[in-house]
Write a structure and sequence with these properties.
10-stranded mixed beta sheet; two-stranded antiparallel ribbon; elongated; 27% helix; alpha+beta; 8 helices
Length: 262
């Protein structure tokens, strides 16, 4: 299969691919319908009626920590944005009124970031004085993601031809910017705020199977990038309720031991 893909990629005229990408980026995307955009992307990625893309699959090991950030309405505890167990997960479809990075209007996905919270905080543009929930999940088992725009290890997958590598890199770079609609367990794509960091996007049914909700920090944005924590919240699936605990509590020490209290 890989050799067939390599042969196909080798047959492509790289200059024409570059020209297709140039023409695509001259389009006024904001005035186009979703299907028109999809057709335009397909035109870039298709050669002689054939589309071939080498999936770049990476795996986050079991135990990987993922974070999500939600803005809160005010500082009141309990908070109206965190009332039920479902509030810690993807938004209801009825609330998805605009298209996101990978979702259509009315289609809900869970966007998270592995390992650290700084990227989602920057992307959500939390401003000074605002309160937010920093939600923590843990991978229950290894999670495979299709890494959009990531580097390939061509020697490992058995591709050696320079032209094939060049053309795949052209397609990959294009997809890094425009995104792929193909999925494994999830998508992973580079952050707008930090090109070296990745966000991960899950379909809800996959997220609930592969991720465990650990808990949430209730925080306030200060002047610096430091995280100012006021308390923690834990969602109960069986009771469909949210419980809040102060810093220094046993719940905080168990779920967020990195927070040092007097």
């Amino acid at each position: 299969m890989v050799k067939q893909q390599e042969k196909f990629l080798k047959s492509i005229d790289s200059k024409k691919v570059i020209e297709k990408i140039r023409k695509f980026r001259m389009l006024n995307i904001k005035d186009m319908k979703s299907q028109e955009i999809a057709n335009a992307i397909s035109e870039v990625l298709t050669w002689n009626g054939v589309f071939s893309y080498i999936n770049n699959i990476v795996t986050y090991p079991s135990g990987t920590v993922f974070f999500r950030v939600r803005k809160l309405k005010g500082s009141s505890i309990p908070n109206e944005n965190l009332c039920t167990y479902g509030d810690f997960w993807e938004p209801p479809k009825s609330c998805v009124k605009t298209e996101g990075r990978l979702n259509k209007k009315g289609y809900s996905l869970l966007y998270v970031t592995p390992e650290g919270p700084k990227v989602p905080l920057k992307e959500l543009q939390i401003i000074e004085g605002e309160y937010y929930a920093l939600i923590k999940y843990i991978a229950l088992e290894p999670i495979k993601v299709n890494l959009i725009g990531g580097k390939y290890n061509y020697s490992e997958i058995g591709i050696t031809d320079d032209t094939a590598i060049l053309n795949n890199d052209l397609f990959n770079g294009f997809l890094r910017d425009e995104f792929s609609r193909d999925v494994q367990d999830a998508w992973a794509y580079s952050s707008i705020q930090d090109k070296e960091k990745y966000n991960v996007c899950f379909r809800p049914e996959i997220a609930h199977d592969l991720l465990k909700l650990e808990g949430t920090l209730i925080c306030k944005k200060e002047k610096a990038d430091e995280i100012s924590v006021h308390c923690i919240a834990i969602g109960s699936k069986t009771e469909n309720k949210v419980y809040f605990y102060p810093l220094g509590s046993e719940q905080q020490k168990s779920i967020f031991p990195e927070i040092l209290t007097k």
